[in-house]
Fold these 2 entries.
Entry 1:
Amino acid sequence: MKKTVIVTGGAGFIGSNFIFHMLGKYADYRIVCLDKLTYAGNLSTLESVLDKPNFRFVKADICDRAAVCALFEEEKPDIVVNFAAESHVDRSIESPDVFLQTNIIGTATLMGACRKYGVARFHQVSTDEVYGDLPLDRPDLFFTENTPLHTSSPYSSSKASADLLVLAYYRTYGLPVSISRCSNNYGPYHFPEKLIPLMIANALNDKPLPVYGKGENVRDWLYVEDHCKAIDLIIHKGRVGEVYNVGGHNEMANIDIVKLICKELGKPESLITYVADRKGHDLRYAIDPAKIHRELGWLPETKFADGIKKTIKWYLENREWWETIVSGEYKDYYERMYGDRK
Ligand code: NAD
Ligand code: TYD
């Protein structure tokens, strides 16, 4: 059945991969991307789909009520999937305000429009970081959907605040919502300020590989396509008002990831440089994905050993994409594409 899906933040890492997944799988769906194109949004990422008749890109801020309502009025979406966010923990430590604005107020603004236009599903893309961290010496502990929210950074606090609002809109107004809380993603189009793409880009340029603290912190890595498939399942088959954890039981210490990248690229480990630790650095994230497996049959399909090879290959074959980002040139792309277009 034909549906219209608004994907916010679709010019970013996971949102763009989700758009490719949806356009590839549902030929009769209309996919509308709403994105502000912040420093993290890159329209060139969507270049291959910009001319598709069932795809539309709209540059707007999710906090802009008038713009959001005008788009909903025009498109009458069936489903809204909210990826739009400020997503980098280090930036949230430097400047928290924009995180509160986009991640909290933006989510509330979108839900207001969903109520007004009777949207059948609002899906909030959240993160395992809302659960805080786990100790390094308790490998038996995992985050379940019932783990209390216990955040560490302004980023995770803003995401947890949004989650609470989403659940409040469900209980108070009966808005049909769902939430996914995923572990760290990796794959193509990952902005090169995050661990894996930053290390690949720096290693390729023979630049130092800055590891925070001792590199012992553990993250639970999931290939981005597996996350997109999980969200696809949740918006179509997941229960309204529910939270689903998404993760692939793939925990790795940061230093092991960096050493693996050196090995895959044939670069010396002497590039590794230990730098001052992140303030409030979460020790370990680890998701228990039993609920989404039990209820929706989701299981990750890409093993880390294969996913990291595919990812490195993608960065090798798409140097222009990340080199224009590293040089800041990508910011001119929108102006070149749309500057003179009325
Ligand atoms: P990203 O930073 O790569 O992309 C964010 C996108 O949102 C960009 O295109 C940006 O332009 C857009 N955006 C930012 N502020 C906006 C605003 N006010 N209005 C409209 N658009 C705006 O982020 P990502 O890594 O793709 O993450 C997407 C979502 O997934 C986020 O909500 C994040 O919290 C969540 N998440 C990310 C991970 C991860 O490992 N990257 C893991 C779990 C959950
Ligand atoms: P990041 O990709 O920022 O994701 P998150 O903090 O949301 O998990 O960082 C992943 C881990 O890598 C985290 O423990 C911080 C660490 N890290 C470094 O050691 N060096 C770096 O340059 C970056 C960006 C991250």
Entry 2:
Amino acid sequence: MSDKTAGQDMKAVKRLDMVIVGAGFGGMYAVYKFREMGLSIQAFEAGGDVGGVWYWNRYPGARVDLPSIDYCFSFSPEIEQEWTWSEEFAAQPELLSYMNFVADRLDLRKHYQFNTRIARAIWDEQRQIWQVFTEGGELYEATYCVMATGPLSVPKDPEIPGLHRFKGELMRAARWPHEPVDFAGKRVGVIGTGSTGIQIIQEVGPRAGELFVFQRTPSFSMPMRNKTLEPDYVAEVKRNYAGLRAAALNSAVGGLRPQSTRAFFSVTPQQRRSLLEDAWKQGGLAMLGTFSDLLTNPEANEHVAEFMREKIGEVVHDPAVAEKLKPRGYPVFARRPCLDSSYYETYNLPHVHLLDCLDDPIEEITEKGVRLRSGEVELDMLILATGYDGLTGAMLAFDVVGRDGLRVKDKWKDGSRSYLGLMMNGFPNLFMTTGPNGPSALANIVRISENDVNWIANALTSMHHNGLSAMEPTLEAENSWMETVNTLAQRTLLSKAQTWYVGANVEGKPKGLTIFTGGFPRYAEHCAASARAGYREFTFTGVNRQEVA
Ligand code: NA7
């Protein structure tokens, strides 16, 4: 069969039950789950293989900032026992090996078409199917679409004039080459000091001839104190995985992160200090577990911020450099807290230079390097660690057209909206995993992915048993969910920093915190409650297309 749509040569149409987009945690689990349910599936991935974020982010020093034992699938007890993590916070090569191991073990790759981007997805109301077009001009038709496209998959170049003119090596953290990169003897520049920039700077600093860090907003970074996992510890974890998963599911971040019910001002200044010192010594995420009101009480937050500024001053030898590295003007933890192993120490190396782009802004990129207001910095290599069009970027990167011609980009023109971050009114049978109005970037992405895929699976099973073929949330349900999301967002300090959480890093993007901040357990309970109540916030269509109340 051949067809011509919108000027594209169409190849034979392939008819399926489900199209799945993405080969990160959400996509891989979706492929496994829906195949096991007996659905005919086809999955797509823009990268050359599985791994999602860990396929692309091969930059030096790339590492997860949640405990590895927690940042992995829980749906397969066999995989939990067969895979052994070597470090508390695994590096990218090990994370990618894990994803490959899972893909091999469950034979997932055969369902994927790699190196393939989706250009458009259009709902055909008459036929009750999604038409999914690849950029290569293939057309797939499916009853269901699962967008497992992730909150951080569209890297963002900085809005600095002249980027294309740079004649040296231009490297993007999230599009890092697969071959080894040599820094020896080179004048290397890094733009961006978020989690990514910090990991790169501490790794490349000692290896480069000279390193120039172009810093706009300094981040708060805490010591990771990464360690090798000893066999006894691993054995204990494997014996107790069920308990660890239960603990993670009950925690606000869906993870094994220390938590506290103690308010900051409920203890004496000496006790506060000693709790903070202990947490700092312990490293990792311990600081987040010191007090319960760090993100709700601005005064408590400022005390902890000042403690962390002091720590920077203790490490960095040059007081002027230390001062520039100390974040001010936004609450600590309102920007994603970073973990490092030698970030601040790197600035003690004589060939590492911190350039403060707040005082001395970047004016343009030139053929030879970066021109600041004060003059040009010549570089052999420029590394961009300038972040992502987070949360909504991937869903808006292609054209998704629902019922009555409604486009996601129009529906989201004032900010993302959905019901539970899982489905949108006007887009029947289109499911998202880790969607922008769920806990998203604020909780363990693997636990959210599993929760979301399981929810979709239950919804499809329920539809099947009831002879239904399509579902979508009512507008009232969606509005009510967004009201919950917005009300909760007012209570946190998270929107007080200019970050990708609130869309502040992309020009023209609607601003505001649309992530569910009520914590993972409450989110999971909302999802479970909607299933228990028989999906009454949804409208359904029967197999013979009649509307079912
Ligand atoms: P982030 O956290 O968004 O950091 C991006 C950094 O790039 C940040 O320091 C930005 O400064 C900087 N940036 C962006 N554009 C510019 C320009 N034009 N000039 C100077 N500096 C610029 O992204 P990451 O990749 O580090 O981390 C993303 C997530 O990945 C992280 O939260 C973890 O969840 C893992 P700004 O703050 O805008 O002043």
